[in-house]
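Protein in question filed below.

…
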Amino acid sequence: MEYKEPFGVKLDFDSGIIEKAKKIVRRLSDMKGYYVNEEAYEELLKENPVIYEVYAIEQEEKEGDLNFATTVLHPGKVGNEFFMTKGHYHAKLDRAEIYVGLKGKGGMLLQTPEGEARWIEMEEGTIVYVPPYWAHRTINIGKEPFIFLAIYPADAGHDYGTIAEKGFSKIVVEEENRIVVKDNPKWKD
């Protein structure tokens, strides 16, 4: 039998950067159609800010192996809707995932394929279990970067297309200095 070699990498808890990781950058221009307020989106698009960065250590897409990544989700809003990740289902829907809050304040919006949604606030030390079949998106509700670690099966894959097409059934906004989870008027069930 040929064994895979164990390895270790350093994670900078302050910046969220994992050494030797593949870096993915998502700007506002990569998020067209994700925010409800299209006028506010177009106005902010003139600046085209970085919404989030991912630092991923990925294995071959095979059963039994794990990937892990950190995400640095920047603070900000489009209209009154907080900066968020695109969100996804797993391509293999029966795969779970673990998220660990490392820094900042945010939360995870989860949803079944039928649109049943849950909101879980996160901060440093919060661990969120994402069960199989649930789409998930993280949202920064704070004033500093929200940094978290994700651990998931290497063969899970990502289905971003379903979310790009249908959206999430709920959105997370700020209203009267409060965090509010409300129905998404753009959601297609």
Notes: The chain has one domain: 22-183. The helical segments are 38-45, 161-166. The two ends are 48 Å apart (CA to CA).
